[in-house]
Amino acid sequence: MLVWEALLANFVTGARVLSVSHYALGIANGIAHDSSLNAGLSVAVSIVMGAIVTVLALVLAINLLSSFTLKGEPA
User: Fold this and answer.
1) Residue 40: which region, alpha, beta or left (left: phi > 0; alpha: psi -120 to 50)?
2) Residue spans of alpha helices (H) in the chain
3) Torsion over CA of 14, 19, 25 and 26, rounded to 10 degrees?
4) pTM exceeds 0.90, yes or no
5) pLDDT in tens, 45-75
6) Using CB atoms within 10 A of its CB, is residue 26 exposed (0-12), middle (13-18) or buried (19+)?
7) pLDDT per residue over 23-33, tens digit each?
8) Residue 23 to residue 41: CA distance in whole angstroms
C-alpha cells in the first residue's frame, strides 16, 4: 500500500495532500530543516492532516470493534 501511495503522490501533484508518508516528511522537514526531504507540505498542513487521518482511523476502528463478537458469546 505504501508503494502505491508513494508512486501516486510523486506523479500526481495534488495527491501529496492525501499521502500519510508526506505528512511524516513535512513534520520531519519542520524539525530537521533539511531540504533533501522534499516533503512538499508545510509543517502546519502536515500536522493538521495527520491529526485528521488519525482521528478518522480511530473512529472507524472503534466502530468496527464495538460490533465485534466471538462465536458462542451471548449477544
Assistant:
1) left
2) 2-11, 20-32, 43-66
3) 60
4) no
5) 889 988 998 999 999 999 999 888 777 766 5
6) buried
7) 888 888 888 88
8) 7
Total residues found in the chain within this entry: 75
Place of cell 480511530: 58
Q: How far is residue 23's CA from residue 16's CA, in Å, rounded to a whole number? A: 8
Sign (positive/negative) of CA torsion 58, 18, 47, 38? positive
Residue matched to cell numbers 531540504: 35
Please list, in sequence order, all residues whose beta carbon lies within 8 angstroms of the beta carbon of residue 20, skipping any fewer than 6 positions away. Answer: 5, 50, 53
| Pick from 47, 30, 48: nearest CA to 39 | 30
Residue 6, CA distances (Å) to 3, 9, 33, 41, 72 in order: 5, 5, 21, 14, 43
